[in-house]
Amino acid sequence: MSKESRYIYNSKTQSYDLYTPSNLTRWTRFGIVVAIGLAFFFSYFWIWNGLLGKNTPKTAYLEKKNAAMLSSIADINERMDAQSAALSKLQERDNVVYRSVFGMDEVPKSVRNAGFGGVDRYADLKIYMDADYLISSRNRLDILTKKAYVQSLSFDDIQALSARAGDMANCVPSIYPVVPTRAMQQTSSFGYRSDPFNGGAKFHSGIDIGGPKGTDIYATGDGVVVRVDYNYYGYGIVVDIDHGFGYTTRYGHLLGASVIEGQRVSRGDKIGELGSSGRATGPHLHYEVLYKGNAVNPWNFFSNDITPEEYQDMIAKSRSRG
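^ thats the sequence. predicted structure below, dont judge the formating
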C-alpha cells in the first residue's frame, strides 16, 4: 500500500474506504506549501526593509565595505592635494630658478598640464557604484603621475647641463672686451638714446666704448665665431661669437678681424682691433650681449672689480694656451 494511501470513514456507508490521492492533488499541496514559503520570505524582506528600514546582512556588509573603500579614496585624494601643491612649487622653482640659471627655456604649461584624450581610459570603472568619484580620482592620479614624470625629465636635463657648469662659467661673457684703462671710455649706453646721425630717439642694443684706433679687442667668453662680416651702412666689420647656453656677443665697427668663421676662441683671445668702419662718427667698439636672441645690457655681466693688470695676466694666459 502506498505511504500516502489511508482509510477514511464513510458516514453514508458506515464503513472505511481506502483513499489514495491523485498526482494532481499532490502537486496542489506542494504548490500551496511553496506559496506559503515565498509569502513568508517576501513578508520578511518587506517588514525588515520596508517597515523597519533595515538591510539584509549581506547588503549591510557590502555597504560597510563600500564606505571603507570610499574613505580610503578620500584619503588618497587628500594626499594627492598635498603632493600636487608640492609639485607645483617644484615646477615654479624649476622654471624660474634652475632652468633660468642654465639658460634653458621654461617647460610650457601646455606640456606640464597636458591631459589625456582620445581613448575612454576609465570605461572599466563605469560599472561601479560612485563611478564618477572613482573616475575623477583616477584621472587626478594619472595627471599627477604625468606631471611628476615631466618634472623628472626636466631635472635630468638640468643635471646633464650642470655637469658642464665649469664650461658655462667660462662661456658666459663676463669681462670687458678691452683692457679697462682710462683711455677706454663708454661713449654710449644700452637703451634708448638720441641717434648721433639724425637726433631722433632710437634704441641702442649695446654699449659703445671709445678709444684709440687699433686697440686690441678680446673675446669676453669661450665660444665659436659664427659671423665675420662687413656692413658699410651698419656695424662695418663685425664679429659674432656664439658662447652656447643661449649667449651671443657682437663686436662692431672693427678696424679689422683677427678670427674667421668657425674658429673656436677662449676668453681673452684677440678677435680684432677697435676702428670706425661702417656707420660711425669716430673710433669706437659697439659691443652687444644677446641672450636667446634678445639684446640685454652688457653691464649686467661685467666683472667690474678686475684690474688692468689682472686683465693683462688673463690675456697672457690665453696667449700661452694658444
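The chain has three domains: 6-51, 57-163, 175-321.
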